[in-house]
Fold these 2 entries.
Entry 1:
Amino acid sequence: MKILEDRILRDGQVLGHDVLKVDNFLNHQVDPMLMEEIGKEFHRLFKNEKITKVLTVESSGIAPAIFTGLAFGVPVVFARKHKSVTLKDELYTSVVYSYTKKTSNHIAISKRFLNEDDRVLVVDDFLANGQAVKGLIDIIDQANASLAGIGIVIEKTFQKGRQLIDKEGIHVESLARIKAFEDGKVVFVNDEEAEDAAK
Amino acid sequence: MKILEDRILRDGQVLGHDVLKVDNFLNHQVDPMLMEEIGKEFHRLFKNEKITKVLTVESSGIAPAIFTGLAFGVPVVFARKHKSVTLKDELYTSVVYSYTKKTSNHIAISKRFLNEDDRVLVVDDFLANGQAVKGLIDIIDQANASLAGIGIVIEKTFQKGRQLIDKEGIHVESLARIKAFEDGKVVFVNDEEAEDAAK
């Protein structure tokens, strides 16, 4: 997605060799006009998947997910993060390990908001090691709902999340795919490479 | 706001004598179409206030705030909650006490995203005891920014938050104002009462 890549090049900050800071338009300060375009793009990419619900994790996933829900005209559910979980009878829960923070969080959603009739589109801001997505897929399985696809705003292809998902044969779309940070600069997977990979 | 009041009557759950659960359209499962209308309504109510930024707190404030930002065409910043705060040089921080959870959280925003030129609209899902709003006002003061107004989705007028804000002469708009829960039912402040109060 050209406007997203341009925005990453303009406003993203590369920290070390594997961190991209985009807190001025995506996950602290948020650009709602860009989020609206992201929602429309996910709709274009998944419009044949009969989506009934969009699922994400608080907090950074909410903005892109909510505009995706708007574009599809369906509800959005955000899983909540907890240090520990009580009231397990009412909740689907999973555990998400954060490589960045080196801690585990429980994520949970109320059983009332996901069921076997749902075709779920998972939306998240980043795909790196795939732990958040893995936790959400676990919850979708517990609810006997169907995973219809995964929409990622920014993917880091050099970390292992994408591999983990591709193994499962899931329909994944990432709006910006970063293959490396070189000398503090972002290098995107270009279209040719993407086509080669799809062959 | 009629569609919001109707939705509260239809889908809200009253718990005890002071809690309204709206987790099926506002703060866990979210209705993006309703959020879009809420954003437009805040724009209508504050359109003369020369808003440059919308400020809220994660996570439940994000959905209504992001559509308000869209309606104004301005960025949205969400304060992050932390148990403790490090890196204080880079952050404006405040402490928010939760009467429901009986715990204190720090809230923080990066100094890069708020400055003396900003005219800030604070948006939040609930106004009850006013502690979150108080923390956000504290942060706006620290940044020498101007507080242009406060937009609340659901206000409980029988708790002390509104009084606390009114004392300061701030422009506040609440889209649904609840004066009591009677026999498990929501009772709104009706328009006559609102006009009387304004006299």
Note: The first strand of chain A starts at residue 13 and ends at 15.
Entry 2:
Amino acid sequence: AIAQATPAPVQACALPAFDTNVRPGAGDGPTDVEIGMIVADVLGIDDVNQQIEGDFLMVLEWTDKRLADFGGCRFPITQVWFPPANLLNSSNLRATYTQARNQVSVAEGGRVTYLQRLTGTISSYHDLHKFPFDRQQITMEFASPSLGVDEFQFVPMVDGARLADTLNIEDWDIRGVTISAANSMLSTLQEERSIAAVTIDAARYYGFFLFKIITPLTLIVAMSWTVFWIPPQKFEAQIGFAATSMLTLIAFQLTTSSILPRLNYFTTLDWMLFGATLLVFAALLEALYTGTLARRGREAQAQRIDYVCRFVFPAAFVLFWGGTVITSIR
Amino acid sequence: AIAQATPAPVQACALPAFDTNVRPGAGDGPTDVEIGMIVADVLGIDDVNQQIEGDFLMVLEWTDKRLADFGGCRFPITQVWFPPANLLNSSNLRATYTQARNQVSVAEGGRVTYLQRLTGTISSYHDLHKFPFDRQQITMEFASPSLGVDEFQFVPMVDGARLADTLNIEDWDIRGVTISAANSMLSTLQEERSIAAVTIDAARYYGFFLFKIITPLTLIVAMSWTVFWIPPQKFEAQIGFAATSMLTLIAFQLTTSSILPRLNYFTTLDWMLFGATLLVFAALLEALYTGTLARRGREAQAQRIDYVCRFVFPAAFVLFWGGTVITSIR
Amino acid sequence: AIAQATPAPVQACALPAFDTNVRPGAGDGPTDVEIGMIVADVLGIDDVNQQIEGDFLMVLEWTDKRLADFGGCRFPITQVWFPPANLLNSSNLRATYTQARNQVSVAEGGRVTYLQRLTGTISSYHDLHKFPFDRQQITMEFASPSLGVDEFQFVPMVDGARLADTLNIEDWDIRGVTISAANSMLSTLQEERSIAAVTIDAARYYGFFLFKIITPLTLIVAMSWTVFWIPPQKFEAQIGFAATSMLTLIAFQLTTSSILPRLNYFTTLDWMLFGATLLVFAALLEALYTGTLARRGREAQAQRIDYVCRFVFPAAFVLFWGGTVITSIR
Amino acid sequence: AIAQATPAPVQACALPAFDTNVRPGAGDGPTDVEIGMIVADVLGIDDVNQQIEGDFLMVLEWTDKRLADFGGCRFPITQVWFPPANLLNSSNLRATYTQARNQVSVAEGGRVTYLQRLTGTISSYHDLHKFPFDRQQITMEFASPSLGVDEFQFVPMVDGARLADTLNIEDWDIRGVTISAANSMLSTLQEERSIAAVTIDAARYYGFFLFKIITPLTLIVAMSWTVFWIPPQKFEAQIGFAATSMLTLIAFQLTTSSILPRLNYFTTLDWMLFGATLLVFAALLEALYTGTLARRGREAQAQRIDYVCRFVFPAAFVLFWGGTVITSIR
Amino acid sequence: AIAQATPAPVQACALPAFDTNVRPGAGDGPTDVEIGMIVADVLGIDDVNQQIEGDFLMVLEWTDKRLADFGGCRFPITQVWFPPANLLNSSNLRATYTQARNQVSVAEGGRVTYLQRLTGTISSYHDLHKFPFDRQQITMEFASPSLGVDEFQFVPMVDGARLADTLNIEDWDIRGVTISAANSMLSTLQEERSIAAVTIDAARYYGFFLFKIITPLTLIVAMSWTVFWIPPQKFEAQIGFAATSMLTLIAFQLTTSSILPRLNYFTTLDWMLFGATLLVFAALLEALYTGTLARRGREAQAQRIDYVCRFVFPAAFVLFWGGTVITSIR
């Protein structure tokens, strides 16, 4: 019953004087307000600012017996009682239905429907430990600060959380959206409230990071292994090569550090970068060591070390990265 | 009949009390609303956010018999019935005709015209597989969420979709704009609605990408071929050269990755970059191999390989890139 | 007669009922509206978005006999007939005189003056073929979509286009501003309208581009010529040198490509970059060729070629760049 | 008693004529206004612009005897006396409770409560000498410019400063928030006022800077020490190596300089960078000196110097950085 | 007398009908309006856009005998005569005291006070020839376009220009603020007006530029001098070294070019960069020349030149930079 109002017969829809501060059914337990949320579009999920940008259709429905005779009418929300529901998340939303249409429509028996389209950004709280193989549950919470649990209750609308077919986001797989309601403690007020929660289940597509970051990283690490194929006498070439790989890795790390906020912990990608840096640094040390051996006339030993490293380094790389990725996907 | 109102004789244009919630002709089938859209300017098409920024003139026309006696008058849209048409795309549009002119004008017989100029961004949904040789059909959809197909019908205006002569966009060829209307399922409401669709046909000019990205790429790849002309004994020079080409390619890839959103698939340009990277990496391996051969005294064989590669690599390059481009243009 | 209103004697400025939709002098040919535009500041000209950001004082003057008895009064624009003039360019302007002063002032005989200060961005349409030696005519066009040429005519005010003494723009020389009016076809409406055009004549100062782009470019190209002074035996040094120049040029090109929009054509600077790239690539090929000659024992020939190139390359460079610049300045 | 209003019986809440300019209890000393501030979210702390972006719930409570008979009513803030309290910090805040709810609610005895949610940026004044090991006390100050200390007094609400459980900020540890009030001189007015101060205690998490800046820096410095392991005869390799480390450091410094505003003093990180640069420059000079010694046949001395430096440089590095960090943490 | 209003006795503050277009004291010479400006904060000075971002408290005071009986009242600015004063600079300011407090307060004898807090950006006009050793006088000018010098006069308030103790800007030393008024020609209107000028005296702190730009520059130039210590036989090392310094300088120049707008003239920093580039280029030529001499067997001469340059280059550097800086500071 979303967004429909049978037109009233041509009659006066003029309301009598009305105390809009008094909630409907004040004597009969809490006022139930049904809530529904359609995700019409997801425009982006911003990891740095931890925000989701979207386009939402919010529906609120409740019964106000005082409006029972006004079936088919529409009223501005300031002329009737209106649920004092707030989005608890920090947000910057524009209401699209403003001007002539920020109205409720009344159906038979005083059933009141309010439909609003909200576009903008909402704070999400990301756990990025498994980045870029992460999956986030982004939750929007609604509550009424001024009405307690015995005065106001949210009720999730049946089939009230829906997702549009086509979304304008490329780097996340929006797998679904659910809605629920429960009484719980509101930490900012330190009182219990009825809280409606809309949860968007989003899994990151890691294709971009695989192709644009992890593949180049692999090539840079693989290039550092060429020092095991350069003869130990060609000492400077080896060191120059390893150092160049090293500096490229560091530049890479700087570039990628702006993809995420300034975290105080390591993501999966950070562990991968860390392992890569360690391996390239080890290759640099190996080149220094075999070069010193060669200068001291122990070339055979140097070449044996080089030979062993040709297998040990790639194996260590595969094991470390494999382990990191498997841990984070599991 | 766009944007014209014959002035009413100096008389009172005062409307009687009027139920603006009742649509005109409520008893005689759906209310027909003609829609026209003039694209006055396209300011930009943003691939990263998948948005078009434009300047649009929207015209709505319908007949309201209740206004038949008010030919030549103008009324604010809140004083008459106004079609509850919404842009379904996520958008951020400013209405330019606000203040004194957010009005409808009424002609003979209650024919009502509404003209509004809308400036801002509208979500578009790009398919970038063929980038930068792609062509996009950017569609703006209008529907009335609150009125069903038996209550409300859009009718495309004759010659109702037009394009201005001069557009402020440099990187796209806006080839035309069309308008159509049809009943179809609205996924967000799961009900059928009359949907008007304005489609802008835009083909990307690939000149910029050809000159600024593909040409430098070609030069970098071509530079990696100099290792086939350097004698195999000059082992370090070869490897240094190939590695520099490699790192330049990777830096290039990083720089260009901000042109597009974080896609989960390969565009044509990605395939070209991928092919280029493979070829440069192959040149690096070739240098390592011929260098090892030369150190082991098999210089003749090394030189033969170098000689063959002088032809094989350019040929592979031309074939791979040619195939990729031809596939994506077709 | 800009911005002056002799105060009315203390009397009632209350207007009688008035049809503000009827234009003044409706029976005596078109209504003439004088228009003036003072460019109080130019804050910037943005090549990438093709916008001018400025601060403008717009004056409109017309005669409304119905206001003849109200000399010295001021009225809000919604209480009188107001010319339905629109800026045709896409724009994002803020009116500074809002609140208490979005008013017209009436002088003797019903002469009405409206003064508004507009700040913001206006679309301009740049032809960048001669960049950075280009000069742009930036035009703002005003028209009244709803009134035809027999109903409404713009008249340029005498001395109506002026420029402030100090402007806040550093990279353009704003040489003047002119105003004119003419009847012409409005492509978006496909009807004839009276169009007022304010044209700002702006010549780009190319000092910045000369010092910050063209001079470093010249140094990079000149550095590539050192390969002609390095003996051909020092083959690797030559190639390394030429390749470094090459890669620096490519990085340079990437950096400068964000100064302009993604054009489908070559600017003068692009031609200069193109010529520079060709010459550096030629120097790389020369190094490869003389190196091969030297390895084959034909050192004398290699040195002769080097010697000739010391003169040919600088000459080619001067000729190509000189020709390009002269063509674009002419 | 935050955000609660017992509903008034269905009666007229219509106020009589009321001079809202007169403060309550004007004859009995200053008007006391209780103030509370809940930090619902901290979205970011911006060092460059010295701003905190947050989401705040502000509560004001006072007694107005003239409203004693209106317990349970709600009034728009323009219809009653409202404390003329201003945020003294520069700020750009949006009030979330606008439209229908920018109201005060009145309880028994004329106790008036006002609740507002404010979202946006507030100027903070950072002392960055110890960056990135710094801790900031971010203070928001409220005062009433138009009422002196004998007319208006702020009173901190009991338990009036609270912090939400989950905050949307990753790089700072928000340790608490306190509220206080005192009379002090207002420098802009040069008069005494009652000033309420809300102080947010924020300690920066330095993990990000440790992993992404200080670790790479350490690697770059450590790489410059390889010149002590390269034999002095390999003069060019040494110098090339030291110079590359040097240039990498300088590039690093450029990149990191945009993290902070343009300070006129050195932060802890600047001292660390400065020490690192000095050490790398010293390694470059050492390479030049030992190279010159080796060319003059004093290779033994050169190698002794190299040998000593292998220990002196790391020790100097550890001592300098350790001292810097310890000083700034203490 | 800033920002104080003794409360009026509880009486009707209702104004009689009033022609707010007529200025007070119209028969007795020009109306004097006192103006004061408190700079509550300076948030930033933006060289690129030539803007100052600040937080200002503006006070206006004048006498309106018609309000003599309303001492202690407050009126909205639209209900009284209000000075038509405009900020002439282009600006984007938000008025903080909006809603309920965009009012004037009236004291004994019709003395009217208006206090407004303005936050935002104001165009400043910088002379950057001496950058980064420059000092700017940033002027905000106010005038009344519609009232001539015989109708309206600004009078600077005694002690009317003040500065807050703590400012939120790090890179400028705000040394003071002054206010003055004078009649002068308004170039946009070509008529004389009374103009009030508020001037902020700002000296740039050059510490940031000294530490982050000039010091690295010095190191890069000093590194180019190592070519004088490398023996002339090591020809390639010398040239490679000089070229690397050269390219680093050019990259440096590119990076720093975004600190300032695109100027058509050289700043002090540009002269320093220019001198540095010339010296590094000269070092490159010296290396080419001594290398050629060495190849031709004139090693002694080459070494003599190297020896001389070890002193000449640093001396030239110190003289050039010293001269440039002294000239610009003087």
Note: Residues 208-329 of chain A form a domain with the Methane Monooxygenase Hydroxylase; Chain G, domain 1 fold (CATH 1.20.58.390).
